[in-house]
Design goal:
Chain A is mainly alpha-helical. Helices cover 63% and strands 0% of the residues of chain A. Chain A has one domain: Ferritin (Up-down Bundle), CATH 1.20.1260.10. In chain A, helix 5 packs across helix 7 and helix 6 runs antiparallel to helix 7. Chain A starts with 5 loop residues before the first helix and ends in a 6-residue tail after the last helix. In chain B, the strands form 2 sheets. In chain B, strands 4-7-6-5 form a 4-stranded mixed beta sheet. In chain B, strands 1-2-3 form a 3-stranded mixed beta sheet. By secondary structure, chain B is α/β, with parallel strands linked by helices. Chain B is elongated and about 55 Å long. Chain B has 4 helices and 7 strands. About 9% of the residues of chain B have low confidence. The chains are: A mainly alpha, B alpha/beta. The interface between A and B is large, with 39 and 32 residues. Chain B: It comes from Paraburkholderia tropica.
């Protein structure tokens, strides 16, 4: 393996942060799922995502140590970094209560949860597959573990997406509203920056932009089956992976980090 | 020297044979393929290699503890427990006898070959969506007439099915 670089570390943390924040978001359904089976499904998938994040943070700690000499653990990354240091896609941090966010608070909408999981898992199905060839053997090993879980996640979200879109008038309307709201945030998946260029040149990870068309084809096929329509493209690109987050991020972190910060080094 | 080393390995294998899976205690971690190896590491120390079934499998730390407990009870020392991610665990590794034990316990074993794990290399064609697999057979009455109730069951590795003939619900160990 090549000597670790800042970009390599930053890239692994991006993957970890998105998995963690989406895993954390989806745990909000734990005990509140629309039906028991979905409650359990969401909890299981959160477990997968948080498990992936743990593997990635542990790997990041190794890279961090080689770069800076600092000893850090998975918990340091998850609980003791500030909002600006998190590099997850903005999509992962958005609330489940949908496009009304910021104007009024309404109940969590499962259509938002499903649409987001579908858009993200469909991306990761391509990304994990490509990462099997990473020049970083540990990242390739994590990809081999995670791709299997991601296939189940795609399958789950895709089935519900079709059921909602091609379901009742209300389920169709809510799925379409969720799609209209969330789809613009997927532009961030495919924007290329210095971190991604550097890891691509080092053979650690492909440019995500490389499989944008494959991802679009997967998404379009599901939307067609679901009788949903992709919204018109927008120009704005969200900036979560650069550490610039939406107003929702602070609330996610507050809930996730407060206990660990009140009781640092607690063991149970 | 070699003979001594081998005996310690044999004793360790024997001690670990009885370690059950914490969530499905009718099968051992060896039969499930979680216990990958008991070997001499490069530095000569006895090393037990385990692999997680799922990234977030909550049983992993319990399994490591159980392994340590079994080795301690057999007075095997020193040792260390290593976790490996590659090759990734697959249900294809579950032994035939373990499949039979799962069935007797009321859990339908995974059907078909998921084509993952050791056989899945980087050149494998990516499967974006789940391949269609044959429906599991009811572990109680043997009927093939079953339907899925939920893709995620009581643990990450299981789905919930029901038999349309005997009407009993059952857990299905997902091919993975």
């Amino acid at each position: 393996m090549t000597t670790p670089t800042q970009e390599h570390l930053a890239y692994v943390l991006r993957l970890a942060d998105t998995a963690l924040i989406l895993g954390q978001r989806n745990t909000e359904w734990c005990g509140h799922g629309p039906i028991l089976e979905e409650d359990i499904a969401l909890a299981n998938m959160s477990l997968d995502l948080i498990g992936q994040a743990r593997l990635l943070y542990t790997h990041a700690a190794t890279l961090d140590k080689a770069l800076t000499g600092r000893e850090r653990t998975e918990d340091d990354y998850a609980y003791f970094r500030a909002e600006r240091e998190f590099a997850n896609y903005t999509l992962a941090e958005l609330p489940h209560f949908g496009p009304l966010a910021g104007t009024t608070h309404s109940a969590n909408d499962y259509a938002v949860t499903i649409v987001r999981n579908f858009l993200y898992a469909s991306l990761m199905a391509h990304l994990w597959t490509a990462l099997l060839r990473s020049a970083d053997p540990q990242l390739a090993a994590i990809a081999e573990r995670s791709i299997k879980e991601t296939r189940y996640h795609v399958h789950h979200a895709r089935e519900w997406l079709i059921r909602f879109g091609d379901g009742t008038e209300e389920s169709h309307r809510r799925a379409q509203a969720a799609l209209d709201w969330l789809m613009p945030y997927t532009r961030e998946f495919f924007s290329t920056d210095a971190v991604e260029t550097a890891v691509a040149e080092a053979g650690i990870a492909p440019l995500t932009a490389q499989f944008e068309s494959a991802w679009r084809a997967d998404v379009q096929a599901a939307l067609d089956e679901a009788t949903l329509v992709a919204p018109a493209p927008v120009k704005h690109v969200s900036t979560g992976k650069l550490g610039e987050h939406s107003e929702h991020m602070g609330f996610v972190l507050a809930e996730m980090q407060s206990l660990a910060r009140q009781h640092p080094d607690a063991r149970w | 020297m070699q003979a001594t080393a081998d005996r310690a390995l044999e004793r360790a294998w024997a001690a670990l044979e009885a370690v059950p899976d914490p969530e499905i205690p009718v099968v051992s971690i060896r039969e499930l393929g979680i216990l990958r190896d008991v070997r001499r590491a490069d530095d000569g120390q006895l090393e037990v290699v385990i692999t997680p079934t799922y990234s977030g499998c909550p049983a992993m730390s319990q399994i490591a503890e159980d392994v340590a407990h079994a080795l301690d009870a057999a007075q095997i020392a020193p040792y260390r427990i290593a976790t490996t991610l590659t090759p990734a665990w697959t249900t294809d590794w579950i032994t035939d006898e373990a499949r039979e034990k799962l069935r007797a316990y009321g859990i339908a074993p995974p059907t078909g070959n998921c084509g993952g794990g050791a056989a899945s290399g980087p050149d494998e064609k990516p499967i974006t969506f789940m391949p269609k697999l044959p429906a599991p057979v009811c572990p109680r009455c043997g009927s093939k007439h079953t339907e899925r109730l939920a893709q995620f069951g009581s643990t990450a590795c299981k789905a919930l099915y029901r038999c349309l003939d005997c009407r009993e619900p059952f857990d299905y160990f997902k091919p993975y």
